[in-house]
Amino acid sequence: MIQVAINGYGTIGKRVADAVREQPDMEVLGVAKTRPNFEAETAVEKGYPLYAAIEERADRFAEAGLEIAGPVEDLVANADVVVDATPSGIGAENKSLYEEYDTPALYQGGEDAELVDVSFNARSNFEAATGAQHVRVVSCNTTGLSRVIAPLQEAYGVEKVRATLVRRGGDPGQTSRGPINDILPDPVTIPSHHGPDVETIFPDLDIDTLGMKVPATLMHMHSLNVTLEEAVDAAEIRDRFADESRLFLIPESMSIDGSGKLKEYAHDVGRPRGDLWENCIWEESISTVGRDCYLFQGIHQESDVVPENVDAIRAVLGASDATDSIATTNEHLGIGF
Ligand code: NAD
């Protein structure tokens, strides 16, 4: 069994922990937190050994009635791999800790691409991470774009991608974030950082992205235009996407008109935390005009990177190939509607 440490137990970390626990070939060795809160309490209730990310603060856990298994150093030392899910920039500070114990580390999309040996998306470049010590699972938006670009590139060749990303202002729990009543070009400069980030997965891709931020918490929305190297029927692209396990084509018959109903659907079918691990593409939005393909997709920022982290664990340890890992992750997480 692969022993997985999770350092940083917030939005992404807690979801990765639960996804790892579901896998037949891995287990959660422990999770590290900086302070006691409701997430620390639920970690203990779920049976995850809790480690203190900052040793001087370990007493605070005891005061809150939470037993600490040890300092984060012990967790990292004993793990086969560590998933760093700390806030942007903290992963870079933690790198020396992982190097000290020679433990391969996965970082999240908030870290710079320069921090790591490889930026990772399971569908697009799984093998590139084999044996790497420092791997970055790219952001929710880059993951969403990569999953669509990979099959189009393989089948038809991609001349150019143009994407407008309408981004949620914050996650549901991020009460400090905004905007509250506004629509922001964000960043106002063009292209946004997302295009160069996608190029960490597809180095030769021509892609421009524009970002906006809106007062929403549920999901991001992408408006996508991909110029292919040949003219293709929209129906053919829909069929191709239907074969991609992490693309959910929302049928017109479901009358899902936006992220609100998508999340409602996820809750109705019993998804944990209402998570949508798949890109949610409106099937009837997939259109072509000559060589231009257009579509709208919803990206659940809190969860689409979760299966990618599980696959990245197997990739760095050379424990599986892409096809088997993706299939195992999908089966045990319950991906696909
Ligand atoms: P979060 O704030 O919800 O969780 C981070 C957790 O790490 C918190 O519990 C925080 O207390 C803890 N932490 C802070 N400093 C720490 C330290 N030194 N050691 C251990 N733990 C520490 O953040 P998040 O949304 O889960 O984001 C984590 C990473 O994932 C970031 O790089 C982010 O960019 C990326 N990401 C976030 C989203 C999203 O929408 N939330 C999507 C994709 C990727």
From TrEMBL:
Domain of life: Archaea
Subcellular location(s) of the protein: Cytoplasm
NAD keyword on record: yes
Catalytic activity, reaction form: D-glyceraldehyde 3-phosphate + phosphate + NAD(+) = (2R)-3-phospho-glyceroyl phosphate + NADH + H(+); D-glyceraldehyde 3-phosphate + phosphate + NADP(+) = (2R)-3-phospho-glyceroyl phosphate + NADPH + H(+)
Assigned keywords, A-Z: Cytoplasm, Glycolysis, NAD, NADP, Oxidoreductase
Residues annotated as catalytic: C140
PROSITE patterns in the cross-refs: GAPDH (PS00071)
One annotated GO molecular function: 4-hydroxy-tetrahydrodipicolinate reductase
Family as reported in the entry's similarity comment: Belongs to the glyceraldehyde-3-phosphate dehydrogenase family.
Assembly: Homotetramer.
Protein name: Glyceraldehyde-3-phosphate dehydrogenase
Gene designation: gap
